[in-house]
Amino acid sequence: MTSKKRILIPGGSGQIGTILARYLYTAGHDVTVLSRRPVAAPWTTRRWDGLTLEPSWTRSLEGLDAVIHMSGRSVDCRYTARNRREILDSRVQPTLLLGHAIERCADPPKLWMNASTSTFYRHTLNGPDDHPQDEFTGEPGGSETGVPETWNFSVDVASHWEKAFYASNTPATRKIALRSSMTMSPDRGGVFRVLLGLVRMGLGGTEGPGDQYVSWIHDHDYCGAIDFLIRHPEISGPVNLTAPQPLPNRDFLRDLREAAGVPIGLPASRWMLEIGAFLMRTETELILKSRRAVPTVLLQHGFKFGFPAWPDAARDLVSRTRNADLL
Fold this sequence. Notes:
Protein name: DUF1731 domain-containing protein
Shape: globular
Strand content: 5-15%
Structural class: alpha/beta
Strand order of the largest sheet: 3-2-1-4-5-6-10
InterPro entries: DUF1731 (IPR013549), Epimerase_deHydtase (IPR001509), NAD(P)-bd_dom_sf (IPR036291), SDR39U1 (IPR010099)
Order of helices and strands: EHEEHEHEHEEHEEHEEHHHHH
Family: Belongs to the NAD(P)-dependent epimerase/dehydratase family. SDR39U1 subfamily.
Organism: Granulicella rosea
Helix content: 25-40%
Number of strands: 11
Number of helices: 11
Pfam families: DUF1731, Epimerase
CATH topology: Rossmann fold
Number of domains: 1
């Protein structure tokens, strides 16, 4: 039986934060979510602005078992100057604020996990001379040739985000940077729902060259890995929250079509994706950058993935989506 932990989730009212809060609360933990716009939930919710040290939330840090920080504006937008500033500030400023608050604690949290992203790693190629990116041998992005300049922005965000995380002096608090890939869940508003919707409309064919890698993680494994990290005090530093089997875009979408029972999907060339991204006010990097992250730290410490391979994960997610739609 898992011992009850006191867990605080700043910025935990978004889609993934809600999934995690629900999982941890259902597992019997004492969960509090900090949000700019608190909503009613089975767990405790409190207001914070991510900018100001206020006793209403800083007192919650004392004696905690874990803080899981998840603040951050969505990157599903055009990278205008204003949006870039908001994306960066919404991650860095609350992270620095939390660091200042933990430094002041008389009884600081045992563990601080801070959201990060597998976009930290460079664009990978699908060839015999390239390799997966893990926590030990992975290479930061930003110096690749032949990729759009806008791709460097997401790498800069990841770099500044983690720099802010490690900037605080919190020697009594274990730190883990969660380099997450796309979390797939059947919940409305998530990336899986978008992908499944495209497949059902017949638009789930190969995107761009099709050999760019897709890194992903099933929502049950995402939550299970967080719980695993809380219970393993020997783990610290960066941890890739990603399934152990990334796969090329063409295979990823083929498996999703098969799971959804859709035999055909129209492919989209790069120029078509550029037009679509412009019209949808987003960036093609989310589709075309090759992310080949693998979870070496989790595997070395014995974490067992329920869904290590995408075909099984896709079938489960499609089934759960259908059930959710019937409710």
